[in-house]
């Protein structure tokens, strides 16, 4: 199954839920008036898009209706598709411009952080990059062992210390290993806890400082892993983590297991953080690059079978072995 097909399958629950609501609304009105906009806004809010972003979408739609002169509600889906794609378009690609580059992976326990690291490492290796993973989540029991399983599956190196070790020392050694082994990318796992923001901030700042000193000038991505099934709670998590550290991108996992895929919109619109990767399955090649145009096409198209895998962008992949759903990281 190609990348577009996987995304289509992954978004099936979201599409079935969201588009059904939009279709019901469109069929209930004969003209685009203020009553229609009020109903649309409520529909968007009920689809986990949130109040602020729903208002923003409706404001943009009003402007598009005025610009295009649209009068028929049947035209709304096409206009919405363009609005959604435009809202999500931005810096959606990973920036790995230096050798080595670094990826700091953060997120709460259970979001799918460990499996995301394994899947992304496998993707990067398939792209011809040499990857080293730093097991810097030394806090959670079995975190290192779980990560070791995933690095073995991906076929990449891991730098690890004993459970309970200082995470900073693991990162220090991993930076040295990345340079000595001529690695392209260093991926860093971190402890998944947010109950004490000060401690987390101090730890992440310390890790980032070590990367900066040991690999000066390297490209650094800070990816926040969020569980799509948690809906608006994922948006709240992103807001809290943004207060703790600068986030360059979102990885949205378990998209195939929820009808709440609309949360991509408020994360991007309200917080200004681009979604860069999405998890749409349970295999090691099911983590894929997020392409706004494909997301909008799938969400709003009446017939989404028309785009072949050959036409789809060669995005990334997200794998989620059953372990991801059982993961406690």
Describe the structure.
The structure is a single chain. This protein has 329 residues and is of the alpha/beta class. The chain has 13 helices and 8 strands. It has helices spanning 3-10, 12-28, 34-49, 51-68, 76-88, 113-126, 143-154, 167-180, 197-214, 232-244, 264-271, 292-300, 322-326; strands at residues 101-106, 131-135, 157-159, 185-189, 220-227, 249-253, 275-279, 287-289. It has an 8-stranded mixed β-sheet, sandwiched between helices. Strand 7 and strand 8 (287-289) form a beta hairpin. The protein is elongated and about 65 Å long.
What overall geometry do the principal axes of the alpha carbons give?
Answer: elongated
Average residue pLDDT: 86
Oligomer: single chain
Q: What about the largest sheet?
A: 8 strands, mixed
The helix/strand order is: HHHHHEHEHEHEHEHEHEEHH
List the helices and strands and how they pair.
Blueprint: H1 3-10, H2 12-28, H3 34-49, H4 51-68, H5 76-88, E1 101-106, H6 113-126, E2 131-135, H7 143-154, E3 157-159, H8 167-180, E4 185-189, H9 197-214, E5 220-227, H10 232-244, E6 249-253, H11 264-271, E7 275-279, E8 287-289, H12 292-300, H13 322-326
Parallel strand pairs: 1-4, 1-5, 2-3, 2-4, 5-6, 6-7
Antiparallel strand pairs: 7-8
Helix pairs in contact: 2-3, 3-4, 4-5, 5-12, 6-7, 8-9
Name the features.
disordered C terminus, 8 strands, 329 residues, eight-stranded mixed beta sheet, alpha/beta
């Amino acid at each position: 199954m190609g990348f577009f097909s996987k995304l289509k399958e992954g978004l099936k629950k979201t599409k079935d839920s969201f588009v059904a609501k939009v279709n019901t609304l469109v069929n209930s009105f004969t003209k685009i008036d203020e009553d229609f906009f009020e109903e649309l806004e409520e529909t968007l809010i009920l689809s986990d898009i949130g109040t602020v972003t729903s208002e923003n979408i409706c404001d943009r739609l009003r402007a598009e209706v005025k610009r295009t002169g649209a009068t028929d509600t049947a035209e709304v889906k096409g206009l919405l598709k363009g609005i959604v794609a435009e809202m999500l378009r931005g810096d959606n690609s990973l920036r790995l411009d230096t050798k080595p580059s670094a990826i700091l992976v953060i997120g709460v326990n259970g979001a799918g952080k460990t499996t995301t690291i394994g899947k992304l490492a496998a993707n990067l290796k398939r792209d011809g990059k040499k990857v080293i993973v730093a097991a810097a989540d030394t806090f959670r029991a079995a975190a290192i062992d779980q990560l070791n399983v995933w690095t073995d599956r991906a076929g990449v190196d891991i730098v690890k210390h004993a459970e309970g070790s200082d995470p900073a020392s693991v990162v220090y050694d991993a930076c040295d290993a990345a340079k000595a082994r001529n690695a392209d990318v260093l991926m860093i796992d971190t402890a998944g806890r947010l109950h004490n923001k000060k401690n987390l901030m101090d730890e992440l700042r310390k890790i980032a400082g070590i990367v900066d000193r040991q690999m000066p000038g390297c490209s650094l991505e800070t990816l926040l892993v969020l569980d799509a099934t948690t809906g608006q709670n994922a948006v709240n998590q992103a807001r809290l983590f943004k207060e703790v550290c600068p986030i360059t991108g979102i990885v949205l996992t378990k998209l195939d297991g929820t009808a709440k895929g609309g949360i991509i919109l408020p994360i991007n619109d309200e917080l200004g953080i681009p979604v860069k990767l999405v998890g749409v399955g349970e295999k090691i090649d099911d983590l894929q690059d997020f392409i706004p145009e494909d997301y909008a096409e799938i969400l709003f198209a009446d017939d989404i079978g028309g785009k072949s895998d050959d036409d789809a962008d060669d995005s990334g992949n997200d794998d989620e072995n059953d372990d991801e759903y059982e993961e406690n990281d």
